[in-house]
Amino acid sequence: MNDTPKKEGTLKGLRGGWLYMRSIQHVIKMPVAWLPPTLIMFLLAAPLGAPRYSWFRNVLGNRYAPGEQIHYLTQDFRTDHGAALSQLDAWAADAAAYLGLSAILLGLLFAGGWLQLLTGTGEGSVLRRFAFGGARFFWRFGRLLVLVLLILGGLRLVLYGDLWNEWVLSRLFDVPDYDFGSLETLDSEAIKVRLGWAQDGVFALLFALVLSWATYTRARIALHDSISVLWAGAGAAWTMLRHPLLSLRPLLGLLIVEGLMVTVVLGQTARFLDRRLMDGAGILEVSGLFALGLVALLVGEVMRGAKYVTAVEITRTLVRPVTPPDPWHTIGGPGGPQYPVDSDDGERYGVSI
Fold it and tell me: Cα(322)–Cα(53) distance, rounded to whole angstroms?
């Protein structure tokens, strides 16, 4: 049976440009999948916030007017408690590093859970399959994370190291070797600023491409149950090179939607509440900022699921599925030739004992 017309119709649907919106709708209908990860990430901030809250509660006590320090710390407060604040900030920085690592590892578990739900049948409840997927793909995604960090580290060395200085600053703009740091030999300050923008912009673009490649690699690992991260990554890179618009446009759409939600909707609401705090408002505004943080995590988790829905859909369409031989319809020892019991031309193979 020829499935070429069906595949062409699917490709036409993907090129319609609204795959990212369908992905968001698909994820929103699965609250059991995105609500628990959101709450876990939200509770992850408790070990960092609880000690700070306890310290400020003990220090403020009845020695300051109610609401005096709610929007910003006054100069007198910073002078009186400067040493203690420095120690608190140093502790918070160390704790944030460990919590950040924990968030990254949890992200690997959540990625495996999403892909298990989207690619595997499995049995049991949604949460059970989600947890199974997180455990199933954790080490493979961990190896991919190491590979991504190595690639990003290499790109940073190229763009912010000697290669950039030699090929861009020295050869294109005639900046002497000794003046790479200050760039005072350039014709104007505007050229220096634009060079910085170009440098950061190229790195941001490559950073986004690497993260997109990692998303498609995870989808490929889950769909084909691939053990080799390098092989799956090479296949994902080849697919992205062959179909750059089809593979990157939906992810760009998701990025734009997430940016609009976070920066425009949530950001403007946070600014409004922040201005209210300056006017001396109280518990409602603080609770509103607290709720905005939870909503931001919720948006991020929904977008994470939508990215994997998009990657799985595109990978299924563009990549031929891996179909292992059915042991009940073939004859032949392991590692040797396999002969079908019922071939397409009607010829039958049998085994005589």
Answer: 54
Distance from C-alpha of 115 to C-alpha of 222, rounded to nearest angstrom: 6
Q: Which amino acid is at 21?
A: M
Per-residue pLDDT tens over the stretch 80-120 = 777 888 888 888 888 888 988 999 999 999 999 999 999 87
- Angle (CA) 193-197-202 rounded to 5° is 150
Cα angle, residue 191 at apex, residues 185 and 195 outer, rounded to 5° = 105
Which residue shows structure tokens 């498609």? 216
Checking if the pLDDT of 75 tops 80, the result is no
Instruction: Round to whole Å and give the CA distance between 159 and 200.
Output: 9
Residue 186 has pLDDT above 70, yes or no: no
Angle at 295 between CA 294 and CA 300, to 5 degrees: 100
- Cα separation, 314 vs 237, in Å, equals 13
> Maximum Cα–Cα distance for the chain, whole Å?
96
